[in-house]
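Posting for a labmate who doesn't have an account.
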Amino acid sequence: MSDRIPRARRRLLLVHSHPDDESITTGGTIARYCADPDTHVTLVTCTLGEQGEVMVPELEGLVAEQADQLGGYRIGELRAAAAALGLSDQRLLGGIGQWRDSGMVVADGVHAAAPPPELLHPRALSSAEARDAQIAALARIMDEVQPQVVVGYDPGGGYGHPDHVRAHEITMAASAATSSVRKIYWTVTPHSDIQRGLDELVGAEQEGLPWRLAKAGELPSVPDQTISTRLDVEPWLPAKVAALRAHATQLTVWQSGTRLAWALTNEIAQPLLRNECFTLVDTDGSPRPVTGETDLFDGIEVR
C-alpha cells in the first residue's frame, strides 16, 4: 500500500467492493497498466469480504458464522493478488475494517440480491446511513491521486450484489466531485464474449473440468452495443491467473492447454476471457457515444 501522490502522467483508479473482484473483472487491465511506467494505478477496495464463503475445507472455520476472521485472512490474499498484477497502490476505503461486507441472497445462478435490512451488520457497506461518509472517503483518495480515468461498476453492480451497487453509487458521486476525472468506465461483459467463452469450454468435462458449465443467460452480461472499449489482455493472462489463484478461499482456476475456466463456491464454470470490456459514461451515468476504443486513456491529453 502507498500513500504517496503518484508522479506518473497517466493515473487510473479502480473501485471494487471485495477482495477478488479486482482480479475477476479487471485483473488483465490492472496488469496491463501497471506494466506501463508512465501510468500509476490505484485500487480502492471497499470491504474485506467478511461474509464470503470458503472453498478451502481447512479454512472453513474463518467464516462469519464461526470465528469471523475471514476478512483479515483475505487481506493477505488481496496483497498477494496485487503483487501478481504488479500493483503497488492498493487502499481500503476508510481504512482496514471501516465498512463490512453486506452479504447477499442468491437470486438465481450467480445473480444476487440484498439481504433483509434486519440482517445487515451495523457497519455494512450498503447501509443507507453510511453512503455520504463513503463518498467523502473515496473523494479524499481521488483528490490525492488525481486520476484522469476511473473504473467502477454499472448501476446493477454487475450481478446485483448490494455492495457492488453501493460501490457504483459512491464511485459516480466521488468522480463527479473530482476535477481531474476525464473518463468514467463501468466494467462489463458483452453477451457475445460470454457465449464465445462458454462455447470454447464445451467438452471440457472430458478433460477434467470439475464443475458444470453455466447455462445460457445464467452469467451476467450486457448487450454488445453498449461496449465502448475492449482491451486485449491476453499478454497479461498469466498475471491475471496468478492473481485469481491468490484468492484461494473464494475461487478456483482450471486450465487444460489453452482452455481456462474459473468457479466460485457455487461450482459453476465461467470462461476466463481474453478481453476485458467497458462502457464509457458521463457523470450522470448516460453512455458516451464512443465505440472501438482500445485504451482507457484514448482522447486524454496528459502532461
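Reply:
Got it, the C-alpha cells are right above this. Residues 10-189+275-281 form a domain with the Rossmann fold fold (CATH 3.40.50.10320).
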